[in-house]
Specification:
This protein has one domain (about 1-25, about 35-65). By secondary structure, the protein is mostly beta strands. The protein is elongated and about 35 Å long. Helices cover about 0% and strands about 25% of the residues. A three-stranded mixed sheet has the order 1-5-4, with no helix packed on it. It has no helices and five strands. The chain has strands spanning about 10, 20, 35, 45, 55.
Length: about 70
């Protein structure tokens, strides 16, 4: 199960898949190229550009995102 103790982690609901970074809540000054992250397989993923960690509410989903 994903470690959700990280205060900087962004929790996402299964309905919000697929996840991309930067997300709409991020300020414009922190923009970088959009990258899609697979949080469904492991329950969490980290953006390779800014290091923001995304955690899927309910943990990994068998078979990936739907």
């Amino acid at each position: 199960m994903a470690d959700t103790s990280d205060a900087a982690a962004v929790e996402v609901a299964p309905a919000n898949l697929p996840v991309h970074c930067p997300n709409p809540a991020m300020p414009l000054w922190s923009s970088h190229p959009r990258v899609f992250l697979d949080v469904a397989a492991t329950g969490s993923a980290m953006c390779p550009y800014c290091g923001t960690r995304y955690v899927l509410r309910g943990g990994p989903r068998p078979g990936g995102h739907h």
